[in-house]
Predict the 3D structure of the following.
Amino acid sequence: MDRIPILRMGEFLLVTIQVDMHDQLALKLQDDLSNAIQRNASRGVLIDISTLEMVDSFIGRMVADISGMARILGAESVLVGMQPAVAITLVELGLSLPGVSTALDVERGMALLRRKIAGVDSDVATIAG
Amino acid sequence: MAEGIISSLLKKSGKDIQASWTRDLAAALPTGKGRISASELEQQTAEFIKLLTVAAEHSRGADISASDFKALREFLEGVSRSRALQGYTSDETAAFIFSFKKPLFEQLRLAAGKDVETLANETWLATVLLDSLGMHTVKTFQKAREDVINRQQRDMLELSTPVVKLWDGILALPMIGTLDSARTQVVMETLLQRVVETGAQIAILDITGVPTVDTLVAQHLLKTVTALRLMGAEAIISGVRPQIAQTIVHLGVDLQGVTTKANLADALALALKRTGSTLKN
């Protein structure tokens, strides 16, 4: 069974979805990703969907779920590179993905992720201090 | 042979009919504006009689969808299309055909003499034929007008959605006119596409030119804002007039999470601040 590769870059995980997702693949990714966050003690997850051209409500919810799961496991997540058609479809489906951070491309996504982690760290520092 | 009489009549006294018809037409059509010249009219009537003669000669029925009437149909389509473009009304265009009845019936009466039955029959047949030709003309006229309207609507749709780059990473979309579903769809697609192309972080939706905002328009705006956010860009709505702000609140539309500003200048200032650019005096 094919699966979506999860790349480790230091304390970040990079997921690039380059094929059209089917439900089984999406569930597998959720599973793999949560395990990978746990295993690597990752601080951030970057999901690049710039080549994803089709979504349905299931995939939309899956993306939101991944973000929620990552947060529970102590990692920030950013969704990058959503195509206009995908964005319109999700909006029309009523999935506005509240709580999911987004960025235009991987570079900006990385910057946002770093900022978010720095923000979390400073919060922790305040509590500790 | 029913149609035979009409066609032989047209052959025999076509010139007389045409002369009297053209005279009637010229009197009936508003020529003051110089929209159609006398020679053009004369040429059209001559062409019509010629084609009708040929068609009536071959066809026995009044079914104008028959292939014998093809040339005539096409001619009429051309006439009504040019009338539509010249700005004639539909009744003025239809009068082209219907005014043909009077001279034709006159000639029929002369030809039939005292034979009342033949006269009645022939008149009826001619009426049916000319009526369907007239209807065809009006139908084409309508279609030509609709084509014009559709084209203009399409043009307007394209004209009304310019996406302008205000600054590095800042796009603005000045919206003008009523926002309906079709327009919002185009606006949304154009804007999102431009965001991808330019990599802009902030898009300002300026609604100064939108006359009214109802729940539907607000919903369209919110959809655009959400789509932008999903793509990783940020939206600012500017140009909210006091009345519109009141309407939005009265309608109970939830604009939480959407940045709104009273004018474009404020929105630009905010956008510059967010992108980290500064302006020097």
The radius of gyration of chain B is 31 Å.
